[in-house]
Amino acid sequence: MDYSKMGGAKKPSAAPKHGEHKRQAPGGKAAPKAELLARMKAAAVKKTEK
Predict the structure, then answer these.
(1) pLDDT tens digits for 22-48?
(2) Overall pTM > 0.70
(3) Of all helices (H) and strands (E), which one includes residue 22?
(4) Residue 42 to residue 36: CA distance in whole angstroms
């Protein structure tokens, strides 16, 4: 059998072998854009009042 034609070994994955990295990332949806803009405007107003 000609092993030189079979290709090399696969590179190891960068992800850890356990599932902890999956639990760290939140799985929910992002907040709506209108809500984000409202929070940003409120923060800007609060900052200018100081």
Answers:
(1) 676 666 677 788 899 999 999 999 988
(2) no
(3) helix 20-24
(4) 10
